[in-house]
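ok trying this again, last paste got cut off
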Amino acid sequence: MARTWLLRASTSCRTVQGPPATCPERGEIPLISNETVISYLQRLASGAPTPGGGAAAGLHAAQAAALVSMVAEFTSGPRYEAVREQAQQIARQAKEMMRQGLSAAEEDERLFGALGAAYKLPKDNAEQKSLRSAAIQDATIAAAAPLATTVEASIEVIKLAQRLLPIGNRSVISDVAAAAEAARAALATALATLEMNIGAINNIAQRDRLVQVANQASEAIARAEELSASARTAVAA
């Protein structure tokens, strides 16, 4: 019964008054990918529970990937003919990570909304308390999935940026540093939320799995910092 509730709650949209214009049938908030930047920022800055840090982490990852793709696309022309095919491959992979980061941001908003709804379930008797606790556990575990996706995408972006640094167009190589810093922000933001989720999960196997993801994020943050420093050194050279 709790899982049925979770499925129903997680597929619903949050409604708000006023702009932005939303889903035509009920005035619901659109996907992040369908709204303007200012619309998203206004929602993020509001007192509403979503979007929040997890969605911001996904967008950090998407921007990191977009920056890598941009540098790769600039790596063209006679001067870069020898590495053009490699740069194009990096650009394609970066664009996929960009989509993955954006998808994670949207999923985080959707699933965190379901978690908030779980906490609002009635708890007037033992049965309701049991159902509420089960729903909260299900929703907490589900809400961690987009964070893991953000970590995965960010790690891949760092790998792509590392491949791009020695061959990328030197006139925009500072954007490799920018990509590294955006990926670092994605990882650090996802890690902060993951750590909170881990403490709330009772299932040992699920908790251990998320601890592994958190450890991967911590290690990748250090690699992102090293990459940023290397890219800035390349700019100064």
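PB: full thing came through this time. The chain has two domains: 15-48, 58-236.
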